[in-house]
Specification:
- By secondary structure, this protein is of the alpha+beta class.
- Among the domains are: 1-33; 226-274 and 286-566, Beta-lactamase (3-Layer(aba) Sandwich).
- It has helices at 3-33, 35-47, 90-97, 106-113, 128-136, 159-162, 178-182, 184-187, 198-209, 226-243, 286-289, 299-308, 345-349, 353-366, 370-377, 404-411, 420-428, 466-483, 548-551, 553-566, and strands at 59-62, 68-82, 120-126, 142-151, 165-167, 173-175, 218-222, 247-253, 260-266, 317-320, 323-326, 329-332, 340-343, 435-437, 442-447, 452-454, 459-462, 497-506, 513-526, 533-540.
- Strands 1, 2, 3, 4, 7, 15 and 16 form a 7-stranded mixed sheet that branches. Strands 9-8-20-19-18 form a 5-stranded antiparallel sheet, with helices on both faces. Strands 5-6 form a two-stranded antiparallel sheet.
- The radius of gyration is 30 Å and the shape is globular.
Length: 573
């Protein structure tokens, strides 16, 4: 045998080995990685040939020790159905199966037995024991088919973050809201009916081994800590019960990385059961999708701008006149009272609108256009890039060609509308040394082939000088220690930086603002000079108190104390 013949034989032999290896890998994928899915499809083929078995990846919460907790998963059970054409005695059949299907109504069953068509679904999500008992009856016309459905073990827990799935007219399942939508390409699985060709399935598996879907399909692991999320939702619920706002929400985030430990808003919904949903608007996530005029929590960012440009210094003073008319519009401190010549600290300690307007106008006079520049650098004029859908963009258009009144009102958080997620990111600049982060909920993608992808925190460029951040942080700590709620929020061994906001709510019908409706907001971070967490809270139109200091101080205090204890955060003073 010559050398060419030997080479051809070796080439053929090598090809056979490669094909065998590929088939082995494909079989591994079908039998091991996706065995349960194909088993369910096989079952469906015999029980009810037209059924397509639903499959989808999971979403997990992540406990502080790294333990994963199912947030959105695939549940399996059985569908019990009636084939009218095969039914012989409707009354006897009902008596036989009703002992296992407690919710089955006799009137409805008898009506279904007389209906036209190939089959009627009697009950879904039946547990295996009951389904087995019904199947063992061997009643002609009664069938049992394995099925799967999306379940959310936590019920309403982090519902807006998780979202829901929906089925299209072509029976394709896809994510509609929340992470279900953002990571739909990762969570989706190819859907096949029970009559799928085995050989095609085998080599479909082969294709994925070499990269067609194994590198895109997987599970999503989030940063959401279930105990923290649960506590946040309890605090929000208790606050809602006391002050009866039309909407309330909160976010807990690591300001250094943008990792979100908890986020929630009320009213909410249970993604397991949407039958009592008051309206589809409840499914939208206001923390990401809505914008609001936030009020005085904007003042620390205005102060940072004034200090960063050098127009003001921490020990500068100004003459507070109480009320001022700018461009024929009158603005005032919350109480209309003049303070006279006072230092910068009092703008934050007493939350003075005239003070914030004064320093903003001084910046605009020295550096025209810098207010839009700074507000944009805080991320207040753009989306955050969070991995949740339908993110709104902050509205700061009146700063593009501003009148003095626009500068003045924006300085204390009126006339500009920002989403809660944009707001907490902007305020994080004060907590992390001056740079922007990208908020994100997901931590890791676990692909079906066993590989993993970590979601790396994205740190953007510095927006404020370090000395500016330190000065504003010191001012905010002073607010808590000496001025805020008469010092009751202060902790002996922990430095806390915080600020409240009370904003007028725009009247969309008559123009201007309501005289009796306000948005309350609150933010704070701790330990102040190397923060582990930043908390943002807001509520719309609370009843019974005018200012946010009365309605949101206790919720913030409860959350901060809980987080310090739960994570054993060491004291810093």
């Amino acid at each position: 045998m010559n050398s060419k013949a030997r080479f051809r034989i070796r080439l053929i032999f090598g090809g056979v080995i490669l094909v065998a290896l590929a088939i082995t890998l494909a079989l591994y994928r079908i039998q091991i990685l996706k065995g349960s899915t194909y088993a369910a499809k096989a079952q469906a083929q015999y029980a009810k040939p037209s059924i397509s078995v639903f499959d989808r990846g999971s979403i997990f919460f992540q406990a502080k020790d790294g333990t994963r907790v199912a947030a959105a998963a695939l549940s399996r059970g059985y569908l019990v159905y009636l084939n009218q054409k095969l039914l012989t005695n409707a009354s006897q059949t009902y008596e036989a199966i009703s002992q296992y299907l407690s919710s089955l109504d006799k009137t409805s069953f008898m009506k279904a037995a007389k209906s036209s068509g190939s089959y009627v679904e009697l009950e879904d999500k039946v547990d295996p024991t009951m389904a087995g008992n019904i199947q063992n009856l061997n009643i002609s016309g009664i069938g049992v088919a394995e099925e799967a459905w999306r379940s959310y073990p936590g019920g309403t827990l982090a519902a807006h973050a998780l979202g829901i799935i929906g089925e299209t007219a072509s029976s394709t399942v896809s994510g509609r809201y929340g992470l279900e939508r953002s990571y739909d390409a990762i969570l989706s699985r190819s859907s096949q009916g029970g009559d799928a060709d085995t050989f095609a399935g085998l080599f479909g598996g082969l294709g994925s081994i070499f990269g067609s879907d194994s590198d895109t399909q997987g599970d999503v692991v989030t940063y959401i800590e279930p105990t923290v999320e649960s506590y946040l939702e309890k605090v929000l619920s208790d606050t809602q019960a006391q002050w009866h706002p039309s909407e309330i929400g909160g976010i807990i985030m690591d300001p250094q990385t943008g990792e979100i430990a908890a986020l929630s808003s009320l009213p909410t919904f249970d993604p397991n059961d949407l039958s009592n949903l008051p309206g589809v608007s409840v499914l939208a996530n206001p923390l990401v999708e809505h914008v609001y005029e936030m009020g005085s929590i904007m003042k620390p960012l205005t102060m940072a701008m004034a200090l960063d440009t050098g127009v003001e210094k921490p020990d500068s003073t100004y003459n507070d006149v109480g009320c001022e008319t700018i461009d024929k519009k009158k603005i005032c401190n919350y109480d209309g009272r003049a303070r006279g010549v006072i230092p910068m600290q009092q703008i934050l300690s007493q939350s003075l609108n005239i003070g914030a307007a004064t320093i903003a106008l001084a910046v605009n006079s020295a550096y025209p256009g810098d207010m839009l520049k700074y507000f944009s650098s805080y991320g207040l004029a753009s989306t955050t890039g969070i991995d949740l859908p339908n993110e709104a963009t902050g509205i700061v258009n009146n700063l593009k060609k501003p009148k003095d009144i626009d500068i003045a009102t924006a300085a204390y958080g009126q006339g500009v509308a920002i989403s809660p997620m944009e707001m907490i990111r902007g305020l994080s600049v004060l907590a992390n040394g001056g740079y922007l982060v990208t908020p994100h909920v997901a931590d890791e993608i676990d692909y079906v082939d066993g590989s993993k992808k970590m979601i790396q925190p994205e740190k953007q460029s510095t927006r404020l000088k370090s000395e500016t951040v330190q000065a504003v942080d010191t001012m905010l700590v002073t607010v808590v220690d000496k001025a805020f709620a008469t010092g009751t929020l202060s902790m002996q061994h922990y430095s806390i930086a915080a600020k409240t906001g009370t904003a007028e709510i725009a009247d969309p019908v008559n123009g201007g603002y309501y005289s009796d409706r306000y948005l309350h907001s609150f933010f704070g971070f701790f330990p102040a000079y190397n923060p582990r967490f930043i908390i943002f809270l807001y509520q719309i139109y609370p009843k019974g108190a005018l200012y946010a200091s009365a309605t949101l101080t206790k919720p913030f205090a409860d959350l901060s104390k809980f987080l310090i204890d739960y994570y054993s955060i060491p004291p810093d003073r």
